[in-house]
Amino acid sequence: MIFKAGQQLPFRKNELQKHIKGALGKTFDKVIEKVSTILEKVYGFKLILCDSNNKFYILSNNLPYVEEDLEKDEGDDLPEDRRKILLMLVLVHLYMTTGIVTQASLYSFLRSLHIDPERKHDELFGNVKEYLTVTLVKQHYLNIEKIVYHKI
Q1: Is pLDDT above 60 for 74?
Q2: What is the pTM of this model?
Q3: Which end of the chain, C or N, has fewer beta carbons within 10 A?
């Protein structure tokens, strides 16, 4: 549902029933009610029934609007938690890659986003290589293991 919400398309009841085994009538309504609660509490989305005759649902962002402080200095454009952006990029690569992720694979992925781990990005991320190999390892996001090859 979250993926399809990004496409901003409505959900049909029969589409949803395909993914929920044995969900007909009241069972379906209970499942939708539970899903709606989870989407709202966990992800900040509200599941809305748009057309009760045709049973169309949409997801709407239910998070409060936060207005930025307009009196900020112009040099303060970088977010405070900008390293979380780098963490999210690393985690995306880890979860989307099947199997073990090599250092070369991760570095190649970051370079494709114009983030060179061998170069210090003073303004944005700082020392990327140190962040990956020290900080993220200490926080248990990454586990670095040396692979030993044996000649046969």
Answers
A1: no
A2: 0.47
A3: C
The candidate with the shortest Cα–Cα distance to 83, out of 125, 121, 117, 120, is 125
How far apart CA 23 and CA 27 sit, in angstroms, is 5
Dihedral (C-alpha) 83, 89, 95, 99: value to the nearest 10 degrees? -100
Separation CA 61–CA 28 (nearest Å) = 23
Tokens representing 86 are: 């780098």
User: Is 12:50 a contact under the CB 8 Å cutoff?
Assistant: no
Length of the chain in residues, anyone? 152
Distance in angstroms (rounded) separating the CA atoms of residues 15 and 2: 14
CB-count exposure of residue 26 (10 Å: 0-12, 13-18, 19+):
exposed
